[in-house]
Fold:
Amino acid sequence: MRSGQFTVPSGVAFNPGVHLTPLDVAVDCPATVLHVRLKVSKTDQSRAGVELFVGRTYNLLCPVVALLKYLSVRGIDNGPLFKQPNGEPLTRPQLVQQVKLVFVISGCGCCSLRLGDIPVYSHDRGICQ
Structure:
């Protein structure tokens, strides 16, 4: 999933017809697969929408468990799926800044980091098996 699919571009107003909301996420029972409905995708030229399926990994960084925990704190009210504590939507620059901060705090000391490098780096470090 590209960061632009779950963040709001800087300087752009949140649009529930384009950007993800909690209503675009569903989970099966017993919470093994997330269903994420992307309203707009780079590869969806007809703008019909795309559904992504994200499986539970049963490890420390399981995306299903992480999103369910986040939603239990965030709530399912209207607005952007990922938002700042002040209610503003999460932007890509804010996401990059937070990810870099986590890596520095964890002792990884990344100075230059592309978001696409995170899964590879995490796997190489034994964070994500």
Remarks:
- Residues 3-124 form one domain.
- The first strand starts at residue 25 and ends at 27.
- Helices lie at 63-74, 92-105, 118-124.
- The radius of gyration is 15 Å.
